[in-house]
């Protein structure tokens, strides 16, 4: 079963902690949710007698879609029991509801002894403010229902602006209780459930199902979703795609064909309007499960179908095919489609994306012309051209822009600002900043204006692509094209100037703010201050603080974080922290982390450890702050203290921040720490962090010549990059680079590693691997292994070239084998002046063989000029 991150699940009210086997939320729970729950303490009782939107049964018109649905696993869809609680369970349920509705979200719920269980009737009366429904005389029920209905209209009318609050409340409740207990609460409170609540509940069930690794548990969540859909239909709500679509998509993703049809039977019963949508999901199901026979069968049935809604079904099928690889069937349906009759922008967009993906340019151009002759707006045609051109595979961004312009010219359509900016965004996402700027120039040539959002997008791409120098061109765009930047634009330009160490340019930008009636902000000055501190220019960083005072800009928490992190003594720490407190700036997690770094830098390790004891640290940030403490202690040599804090974090069942794990691995390099290193490595889930840490562990193993451990780690790397040969080769090259760097006393370890990689991992060494081993032979003074490695080139299918001969010549000279070196020299072509220069330099460096003590590699005795020539030769032979 696929697994994805859950967002929101379950209902509006909390329920039995005993049933859910959980505790109430902590003090860091959502305050908005707490107030929202508290506002309903007297309003949730019985359901309204009225029902809405009763189904009107459809006619018996046959649809081209759907085979007769099967009904497998019906028993699996009875996962929610309708039995009532026993008395003990109801008492616990009532206590939990009472604590929530009365605002006591911080309470810790435990299982009380039976003697303390409050009676059912009395508890529900206290919680809801009304007697239990089952005990109210029948003559009073109707009156009470009307009163509750009025209260509900006042407190439970859910507007659009409340949707986020509802989702957060649903998430809070379900995380504490689980779906079963939540469903029971709805039954107990007789709360009327509306469309918004049903949607949240169904979405929660599906997201919970995606989290499950166990198929039985997933089916249980599906059964709950099924009952919600069934309940909606029984209450007269129309089953719309927003509700059942998420369920069907989960079934499609899991390839659950029989279950899919089982749900479709419920959805389409008396709901003829759903048939085209169900046809889309059915086609999507067979495409995802690669059942081409069924896809062709659906297409054949559609060809025979002559209903008025045939075009609708055709559109839905094409929409489904846009996500799959069914070129033949897609073309078959497209040939029968009148593109001008498709009214859905989503469908048209998907069709043109598919045409681009399948590189069907002639058909796309015909469709563009058909739309133009049918008086479709030029803006829409321009949008479709963008979708088509950006979907063509293996097309460079420059060619995409050219095709975009040519198609507009052919269709005699002028691109709008919106489409140009979409192309700018597309270029920026691929970090093609120069192309994005060229598009800006073309826009202004056509008299079109650039939005500030697009301008800021380009600035962001400049930073990501390290094109910091483009800030000058961006600044000229402002003046040349009369663009009015905002504060964020200036902050980003200042940041780019600082990263290219143009502090004068950054200050000049702050002076330009007045031209645009903008005020300087703390974040602008923080960018300059951070740049100075990164350059270890403490005086420059403090001068920024003076500039802020002159500009009457108040420092924020980031400002004080920079100042504290760069304090040189305890007095400065106290000074800046006092200023922070007096200024009323909020003490954020970054401030606490800066304090830890500051104390550790000053050697005040006990005070650094005391920072995490502060009561002001939010619970949700405490783990991050502790991770920073581990990192700071390790970085300053206090490894034992860092490990002690690390153990505390593990005992609290929290995870160490990946950067702190990496820092700890950096400093656990003494002999005998291998098991601890592996333990830390296992804690890293994020791929990039794991790879970096893995190489640090490999380096440790190489230094201590632990061959078995190196091979085990390399096997994991091979599995991780099994489909990326280039990346795998680079990673393995790095391992042999470590061998060449460590000045081995013998070549025993390096040679055995080479053979193990060939035999145990099944990989051939790259040319760079063998080059590094040749370099290691020099420092190990191992001439026999040098000749064996020379043979490995041929065995690995790497023919000797001029660069290989040149490297071997250097190695033989360095090892004092003058006769072999002379023989090797005769095989080197000397036509290239660069090759001749390396030969002369090698003779001068190794005239008398390797010096006593050896060097790290064959290049160590060469002049920098010679090393540069070698680098150029390597590039030529790649």
User: How many strand elements?
Assistant: 0
Mean pLDDT: 76
Q: What is the number of helices?
A: 45
**What global shape is seen?**
globular
What share of the residues lie within helices? 55-70%
* Main β-sheet description: none
Strand-pairing-aware structural class: mainly alpha
Report, as a whole number of angstroms, the end-to-end distance. Answer: 44 Å
**Strand residue percentage:** under 5%
Oligomeric state of this protein: single chain
Low-confidence stretches: 1-62, 65-94, 96-139, 152-163, 850-863
Explained architecture:
Among the domains are: 680-792; 800-878. The radius of gyration is 35 Å and the shape is globular. Residues 1-62, 65-94, 96-139, 152-163 and 850-863 have low confidence and may be disordered. With 878 residues, it is mainly alpha-helical. Helices cover 65% and strands 0% of the residues. The chain contains 45 helices and no strands. Helix 36 runs antiparallel to helix 37 (707-720).
Secondary structure layout:
Blueprint: H1 17-20, H2 31-38, H3 87-101, H4 120-128, H5 138-155, H6 163-177, H7 179-189, H8 195-211, H9 215-234, H10 241-254, H11 257-268, H12 275-288, H13 292-304, H14 310-321, H15 327-334, H16 345-357, H17 361-373, H18 378-389, H19 397-410, H20 417-429, H21 433-445, H22 452-464, H23 471-480, H24 487-499, H25 503-511, H26 522-534, H27 538-550, H28 557-565, H29 570-583, H30 589-601, H31 605-610, H32 619-635, H33 639-651, H34 658-667, H35 674-682, H36 687-703, H37 707-720, H38 725-741, H39 748-761, H40 767-780, H41 783-795, H42 802-814, H43 818-825, H44 833-845, H45 864-877
């Amino acid at each position: 079963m696929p697994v994805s991150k859950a967002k929101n699940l379950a209902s509006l009210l909390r329920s039995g902690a005993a049933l859910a086997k959980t505790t109430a939320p902590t003090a860091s729970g959502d305050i908005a949710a707490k107030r929202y729950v508290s506002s309903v303490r007297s309003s949730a009782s019985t359901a309204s007698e009225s029902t809405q939107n009763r189904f009107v049964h459809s006619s018996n018109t046959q649809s081209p879609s759907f085979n007769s649905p099967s009904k497998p696993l019906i028993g699996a869809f009875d996962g929610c029991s309708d039995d009532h609680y026993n008395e003990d369970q109801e008492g616990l349920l009532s206590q939990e509801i009472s604590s929530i509705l009365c605002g006591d979200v911080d309470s810790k719920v435990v299982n009380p002894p039976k003697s303390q269980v409050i009676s059912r009737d009395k508890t529900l009366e206290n919680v809801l403010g009304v007697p239990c429904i089952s005990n109210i005389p029948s003559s009073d029920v109707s009156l009470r229902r009307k009163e509750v209905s009025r209260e509900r209209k006042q407190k439970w009318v859910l507007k659009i602006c409340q949707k986020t609050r509802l989702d957060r409340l649903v998430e809070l409740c379900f995380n504490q209780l689980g779906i079963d207990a939540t469903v029971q609460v709805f039954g107990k409170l007789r709360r009327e459930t509306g469309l918004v609540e049903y949607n949240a509940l169904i979405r929660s069930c599906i997201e919970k199902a995606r989290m499950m690794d166990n198929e039985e548990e997933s089916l249980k969540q599906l059964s709950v979703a099924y009952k919600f859909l069934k309940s909606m239909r029984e209450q007269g709500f129309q089953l719309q795609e927003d509700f059942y679509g998420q369920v069907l998509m989960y079934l499609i993703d899991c390839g659950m064909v029989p279950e899919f049809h089982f749900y479709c039977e419920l959805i389409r019963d008396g709901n003829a309007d759903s048939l085209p949508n169900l046809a889309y999901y059915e086609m999507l199901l067979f495409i995802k499960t690669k059942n081409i026979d069924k896809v062709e069968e659906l297409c054949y049935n559609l060809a025979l179908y002559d209903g008025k809604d045939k075009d609708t079904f055709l559109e839905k099928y094409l929409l489904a095919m846009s996500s799959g690889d069914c070129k033949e069937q897609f073309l078959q349906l497209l040939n029968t489609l009148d593109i001008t009759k498709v009214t859905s922008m989503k469908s048209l967009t998907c069709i043109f994306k598919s045409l681009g993906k399948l590189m069907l340019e002639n058909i796309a151009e015909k469709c563009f012309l058909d739309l133009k002759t049918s008086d479709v707006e030029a803006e829409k045609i321009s949008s479709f051209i963008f979708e088509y051109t950006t979907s063509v595979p293996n097309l460079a961004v420059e060619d995409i822009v050219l095709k975009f312009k040519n198609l507009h010219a052919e269709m005699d359509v002028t691109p709008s600002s919106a489409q140009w900016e979409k192309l700018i965004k597309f270029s920026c996402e691929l970090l093609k900043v120069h192309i994005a700027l060229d598009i800006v120039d073309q826009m202004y040539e056509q008299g079109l204006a650039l939005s500030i959002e697009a301008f800021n997008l380009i600035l962001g791409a400049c930073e990501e692509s390290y094109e910091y120098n483009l800030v000058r061109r961006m600044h000229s765009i402002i003046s040349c094209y009369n663009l009015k930047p905002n504060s964020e634009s200036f902050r980003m330009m200042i940041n780019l100037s600082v990263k290219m160490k143009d502090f004068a340019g950054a200050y000049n930008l702050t002076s330009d703010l007045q031209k645009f009636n903008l005020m300087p902000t703390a974040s602008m000055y923080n960018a300059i201050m951070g740049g100075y501190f990164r350059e270890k220019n403490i005086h420059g960083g403090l001068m920024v603080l003076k500039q802020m005072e002159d500009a009457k800009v108040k420092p924020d928490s980031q400002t004080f974080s920079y100042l504290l992190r760069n304090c040189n003594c305890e007095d400065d720490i106290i000074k800046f922290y006092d200023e922070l407190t007096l200024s009323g700036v909020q003490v954020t997690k970054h401030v606490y982390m800066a304090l830890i770094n500051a104390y550790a830098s000053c050697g005040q390790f006990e005070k650094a450890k005391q920072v995490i004891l502060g009561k002001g640290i939010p619970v949700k940030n405490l783990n991050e702050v502790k991770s920073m403490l581990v990192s700071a202690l390790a970085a300053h040599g206090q490894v034992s203290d860092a490990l002690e804090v690390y153990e505390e974090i593990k005992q609290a069942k929290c995870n160490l921040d990946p950067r702190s794990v990496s820092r700890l691995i950096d400093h656990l390099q003494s002999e005998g720490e291998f098991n601890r290193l592996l333990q830390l490595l296992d804690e890293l889930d994020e791929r990039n962090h794991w790879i970096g840490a893995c190489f640090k562990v490999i380096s440790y193993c190489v230094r201590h010549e632990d061959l078995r451990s190196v091979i085990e780690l390399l096997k994991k790397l091979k599995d991780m990059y099994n489909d990326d040969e280039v990346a795998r080769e680079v990673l393995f090259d790095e391992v042999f680079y470590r061998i060449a760097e460590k000045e081995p006393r013998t070549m025993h370890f390096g040679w055995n590693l080479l053979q193990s990689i060939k035999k145990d991992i099944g990989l051939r060494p790259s040319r760079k691997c063998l080059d590094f081993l040749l370099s290691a032979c020099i420092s190990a003074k191992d001439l026999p292994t040098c000749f064996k490695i020379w043979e490995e080139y041929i065995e690995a299918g790497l023919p000797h070239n001029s660069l290989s001969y040149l490297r071997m010549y250097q190695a033989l000279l360095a090892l004092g084998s003058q006769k072999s070196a002379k023989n090797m020299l005769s095989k080197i072509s000397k036509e290239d002046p660069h090759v001749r220069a390396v030969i002369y330099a090698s003779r001068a460096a190794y005239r008398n063989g390797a010096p006593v003590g050896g060097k790290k590699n064959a290049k160590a005795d060469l002049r920098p000029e010679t090393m540069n020539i070698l680098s150029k030769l390597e590039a030529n032979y790649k």
